[in-house]
Design brief:
heterodimer; A: mainly alpha; B: mainly alpha; MetI-like fold; 80% helix
């Protein structure tokens, strides 16, 4: 079977898998961003309990593997009475894992906003919340966007693991097709190329665009 | 509700510890491959041969932007199609070593780029050979800025070893899966895997930070 015939026959399955991978990536990214900002800001709190909770979350999810977390959420959490459907368990695990890494980016970026900005905001009698939202966060956002780009690629790659709890993503379809045809080079090679296209020609340019857009918004371009 | 059984924990502990040894071995071998191969990938991008530079650059980008677990499957299953049978260990080590070599080559590249141009010119003026320049002048200066990245990826490769379980390398995750499907108890084995990972990766990360500042001090660099 030539490669074109192979694509003709299994193309639709690769397509379905790609859609699921994209969905998992988007949902996990939303969760990761929400968790990163929550945990990142909590980590900076002066309240020991608040920053402690955030620290435990960050250290646990950064200190263990995504695969371990995924299996734990999918197989062990039901024993505690929380049963997640596999699709949900997949993006929740990926989102929680990358959210912990993102929290460190958020914290680092906020800390690297020049001290004068904090003092100026205080001198203008801004409330701490207003200072954070209007002055600090927008500047921190510009600083943290480039590393977030790398994190998003890690996130996309991370979603490949959800295939191991039988979510029918791109990786899962590649495995199935490999099992049906034994054309491993074609099956896994095609999937590799699709992941590469998603990362290099969609995700990376998208993040670059966002960086430029934000810089323009901030009047820094 | 769940019930945590300590007796079961003690029962499976020996198996889990052996598996921990395998995990550490996998991470160690994979990292050794990555450290050497990464340097090759980084230096290959610095040759005057433009096509080689381009191919290496794209290869590194390709490896970095595709999932490791898929690469592991690829290496393991594609070999037999062309008559090369690889054991799970061999295939796993090639895949994970190559994956992290791509990451480390970027770390080295950053380190090499950070060496001021004057150092190269001075070495040329002193008539040092290329090999000598790299070994005695450039690499010692490129190393300290690379150390943080190298350390991060050492912890990273350790945390990625569970992916080797998909092709049957008997590391921690694989062992936990086997115990789980044998006994229908997943709570203890999976939790133990998590705890073992935490117990190893957190102190390692701290050690690496100390080592980094120690090297900087040794080389007379400020923090």
């Amino acid at each position: 079977m030539s490669y074109l015939e192979f694509l003709g026959q299994y193309g639709p399955r690769f397509f379905d898998g790609t859609i699921i991978t994209i969905l998992q990536t988007i949902l996990a990214a939303i969760l990761a961003i929400a968790l990163a900002f929550t945990a990142g800001l909590m980590r900076m709190s002066r309240n020991k309990a608040v920053s402690g909770v955030s620290m435990v979350y960050i250290e646990i999810f950064r200190g263990t593997s995504l695969l371990v977390q995924l299996y734990w959420i999918f197989f062990v959490l039901p024993l505690f009475g929380i049963t997640l459907e596999k699709f949900t368990a997949g993006f929740v695990a990926v989102g929680m894992n990358l959210g912990a890494y993102g929290a460190e980016l958020v914290r680092g970026a906020i800390l690297s906003v020049p001290k004068g900005q904090w003092e100026a905001a205080q001198a203008l009698n801004m409330s701490p919340a207003k200072r954070m939202i209007r002055i600090i966060l927008p500047q921190a956002l510009i600083i943290m966007l480039p590393p977030w780009g790398n994190l998003m690629i890690e996130l996309l790659k991370g979603t490949a693991l959800v295939s191991l709890i039988a979510v029918a993503d791109l990786m899962f379809q590649a495995k199935q097709i490999n099992g049906l045809t034994f054309q491993s080079a074609e099956a896994f090679g095609t999937a590799l190329i699709i992941y590469y296209i998603l990362a290099r020609f969609i995700l990376t340019p998208g993040m670059r665009w966002l960086e430029r857009f934000m810089a323009r918004k901030m009047g820094k371009a | 509700m769940f019930d945590w059984r300590w007796s079961f924990v003690w029962e499976i502990l020996p198996k889990m510890l052996i598996a921990t040894g395998n995990t550490l071995m996998a991470a160690g071998i994979g990292y050794a491959i990555a450290v050497v191969l990464g340097l090759v990938l980084a230096l290959a991008q610095r040759t005057p041969i433009k096509p080689l530079t381009f191919v290496m650059r794209e290869l590194v980008e390709f490896i970095r932007s595709t999932p490791l677990v898929l690469q592991i499957f690829f290496v393991f299953y594609v070999g037999p199609q062309f008559g090369i049978r690889l054991s799970p260990w061999t295939a796993g080590m090639i895949a994970i070593g190559l994956h992290y070599a791509a990451y480390l080559s970027e770390v080295y590249r950053g380190g090499l780029d950070s060496v001021p141009k004057g150092q190269w010119e001075a070495a040329t003026a002193l008539n040092l050979s290329m090999a000598h320049t790299y070994r005695r002048i450039i690499i010692p200066q490129a190393l300290p800025p690379s150390l943080a990245g190298m350390g991060n990826y050492l912890v990273g490769i350790f945390k990625d070893t569970p992916m080797l379980s998909v092709i049957g390398v008997a590391e921690l995750m694989h062992t936990a899966n086997a115990i789980g499907s044998e006994s229908y108890r997943f709570l203890e084995p999976y939790t133990m895997v998590g705890v073992i990972f935490l117990l190893i990766s957190l102190p390692t990360a701290a050690l690496i930070r100390n080592f980094e500042s120690w090297v900087r001090q040794k080389l007379g660099m400020s923090k």
